[in-house]
Amino acid sequence: MSVVTTGCVGAGRWCDGSSLSSLVHDFLGVGSGNRSTIEVDPGYGNIDAESSARDLGVKPGSSDVADKATKAAQRITRLLHKSMAADPFLQLLAGDIAKAVEEMVSLQSSWPLFRRAVASRLMEGGYDAAVCQTRWRATEDVTSGNYEYIDVVTPASGKAVASSERYIVDIGFAKEFVVARPTAAYTTVLDALPRVLVAPPKVVQQVVKVAAKAARRSLKSQGLTVPPWRKKRFMAAKWLGPYNRTPDTAMEPFVAAAAAREAMYQIVGFVLGPSVPPSLSYALL
Questions:
Q1: Which of 12, 60, 216, 268 sits between 20 and 30 A of 181, alpha carbons compared?
Q2: Bridge partners of 151?
Q3: How far is CA 11 from CA 3, 127, 256, in A?
Q4: Per its UniProt record, what InterPro entries does this chain match (predicted)?
Q5: Residues whose CB falls within 8 Å of the CB of residue 31, separated by 6 or more in sequence, listed in order
Q6: What is d(CA 166, CA 83) in angstroms, rounded to the nearest whole number?
């Protein structure tokens, strides 16, 4: 399968696109087969601020923290809903990802293996999918780190590669925003975050920005210091930093191991894990 890269020199190379500093700059806003489709509910995410505040055990309008959390949850939901509703390809992709996650859920105890198995299923379905690795050095404001997620690139519609579209797929997205002693208000934000994210980079950028701010407010309200790995710049680097797109051949050992493990579970009669419930058909996104 050919590998189409966006902003990359080639498969297996580091893809800068923009420097990490400019990505963080933009993130912070400084200076200004039969594929399943996802049925988008027009009323999805219509969170009422008053009822939400009441659920949190506070009087409507009496808590600035609860109000900000509700607005953050609403913002995240609107961003994801709008992106999904306007993109038929994204709806098809989301349906196939939901099926791949369900089929490979028995591998969830090993996230690297689980991630590669899902990427493999997408490739088998004809998608140009790959595991992307981000890695960044420490700076004055950002601790060094690394992260992995899946991406899917659509074929260019014309001769210009720039016409390709790239989608970020993270099968463990929501857990990246878990913080110590979360407030009841912040829980509403966590509930709005998708467990499995499927979205274009621009949407991911906006969702991460909103969620990172909410996480900071939760920690501060509990009298806790924001750890380096939960600061906005660090969170931005995970999905928006320079990335290395793993070529198909490098994934073969992981794919073979995943297939062998799944076959073993089926032979001995192990339950492969809970199915993805229908209610997650959009929540997965």
A1: 60
A2: 130, 168
A3: 6, 15, 21
A4: PDDEXK-like (IPR006502)
A5: 25
A6: 13
Question: CA-to-CA distance for 101 and 186, rounded, in angstroms?
Answer: 27
Residue 197 CB neighbour total at 10 angstroms: 27
Task: Compute CA distances 7 → 13, 108, 139, 245, whole Å.
Answer: 10, 31, 23, 11
| Residue 233, C-beta contacts closer than 8 angstroms, at least 6 positions apart | 24, 27, 28, 141, 142
Q: Give pLDDT tens digits for 88-123.
A: 999 999 999 999 999 999 999 999 999 999 999 999
Distance CA 209, CA 213 (A): 6
What predicted TM-score, i.e. pTM, was given to this entire model? 0.69
Which tokens hold the place of 85? 């509703």
Kindly state the tokens that stand for 256: 């073979």
- Tell me which amino acid residue 28 is: L
For residue 95, what are its two tokens?
Answer: 């349906």
